[in-house]
Amino acid sequence: MAHLLGAEGIRLEYPTRVIFENVTLGINEGDRIGIVGRNGDGKSTLLQLMSGRLEPDAGRVTRRNGVTLAVLDQSDTLDDALTVGQAIVGDIDEHVWAGDPLVRDVIAGLASDIPWEASVKDLSGGQRRRVALAALLIGDHDIIFLDEPTNHLDVEGIAWLAGHLKRRWSTNAGGLVVVTHDRWFLDEICTATWEVHDQLVEPFEGGYAAYILQRVERDTMAATMESKRQNLMKKELAWLRRGAPARTAKPKFRIEAANALIENEPPARNSVSLASMAMQRLGKDVVDLENVSVVYDVAARASAAAGGAPAKKTVLHDITWRIAPGERTGILGVNGVGKSTLLSLVSGTLQPTTGRVKRGKTIKVATLTQQLFELDEILNDRVSEVIGRQRSTYVSGGKEMTPSQLLERVGFSSAQLSTPVKDLSGGQKRRLQLLLILLSEPNVLILDEPTNDLDTDMLAAIEDLLDTFPGTLLVVSHDRYLLERVTDNQYAVIEGGLIHLPRGVDQYLEVRALQQRTETRGSSDSPTAAGTSTSAAPTSPKLNGAELRNAQKELASVNRRLEKYGQQVNDIHARMAAHDQSDYTGLATLSSELDATQNTLSDLELRWLELSELLA
């Protein structure tokens, strides 16, 4: 493979510490490289060095003649004075970019729902990110550097981006370097992984899963070697401690060997170890949503100005959801569809417009929000004081621990314990926020986008913690890896309804694709479709009388069966909750029955969508 770009012996030092020391790397044609590491270790800095935006203190970065590259920064660099179209295609004539399949694919995948003439300054954070990404991807570049490209993208957007990058170049062409905490994305597109740590960059073959396997093998070998070294050290020290006359006769090299063993004892790289917290008892009743709907008043001011009544928007419609004890559920849906509204109903911070929310007497709900409001009142306090003022000791993993020891277990170094909360990094604040919530001992935990500002190591540690959480867990996240890792079943909020997804994220993407095809067909039936046509586009053939009656009958049958199997799922959940938890055979039988019922329910839901499309 031809060489594209290389770094030789680079060194970079900031006033307070050395970031890289004698690092040598290379990017060849066909490389798809993911960069991982702890926050603050230099992932984005490495991207800046490799792309030429930052000069090293020593060493050099070389690039093959004629190689072009593009960089997507974490920060927003769009010009607010531009329209969306100008930001994406610039001054390229419409007939040029419209005839380019690559450009059309990028615009359809990232900006199809954003008005072309809208001003950039009026866009949301997620829309601005997609516009910036689209502007980069329409170019023909040999190497693309992406810094957190999945930020603000939903599950569909991330899936599209992965597919685009996989088919953008042929197998042995182009180069891609990406910094991201999205582990599914890393596994999907990367052929190599670079881990940034301790002033160096360590390469691994394969994506995230392969990297984890190699890292475990490396750490296992290191642990074995360390065990042998410890045993030898004990023998050496025991030999040295034998009586004074014997010590004086020992060869000097034996003493030096023992001292070398002590000096070379490697420090543990990963000191983060989270243990489960004691939870309050959770009864059989958690939260039941029965025929719940939520309607908001929208455009009230505009309607009042026009002399009319406030407009109504139905966010959730006629939802029934019985949450079982110990249930671990992921919630999917596009931004703004009503996921947070659904969680607010569960937590009790929002009352439904119609329907009933029944709450168990013993539940204690805690919510990890996207914001950090829980820390507002303690920003000037030191980290150790925040934890220490609540209790003098905590029990974690069966061991009694001081506040300082507990904080160290969740990734805070000794120096950070005396740091004011306001001076912590975003990831550190996120960890402290989660720790404070868990110390309140909830039995229903709601996580709203919990992966923000966390690196892959910390995400793995939090997932390990959530694995041992004995209460009910509800998660809203665009991180596909997290959802599939910590939840047992997934639901989607689509068009105001709650749909169960027995096959998880893959099924959600299928349902969304079907929904989008239906919407596209509906828009093509409009006389003003595409904004230019004044005549109606050809419509799909309508059903004849017999076909229409048969479809209506089948739809009614599907509705009845959906209600029947939905009730069966709820009954099985109740039976599992009441079953002897030590009877693993019985629980396995119930779990198999639940899977079969949910698969049938999934097929019925897809058929309902197909029939609804035919009868629309």
How would you describe this structure to a colleague?
- Helix 4 packs antiparallel against helix 5 (125-137), helix 4 (101-110) packs antiparallel against helix 6 and helix 19 runs antiparallel to helix 20 (584-615).
- This protein is α/β, with parallel strands linked by helices and 616 residues long.
- The chain has four domains: 3-212, Rossmann fold (3-Layer(aba) Sandwich); 213-263; 287-504, Rossmann fold (3-Layer(aba) Sandwich), CATH 3.40.50; 543-615.
- The protein has a six-stranded mixed sheet, with helices on both faces.
- Helix 16 links the parallel strand 17 (444-448) and strand 18.
- It has helices at 43-51, 84-89, 94-97, 101-110, 125-137, 155-168, 183-189, 208-240, 244-249, 252-263, 300-305, 339-347, 383-388, 403-409, 426-439, 456-467, 480-486, 505-524, 545-578, 584-615, and strands at 3-13, 18-28, 32-37, 58-63, 69-72, 143-147, 175-179, 192-197, 200-205, 287-298, 311-323, 328-332, 354-359, 365-368, 394-396, 399-401, 444-448, 472-476, 489-494, 497-501.
- The chain is globular and about 70 Å long.
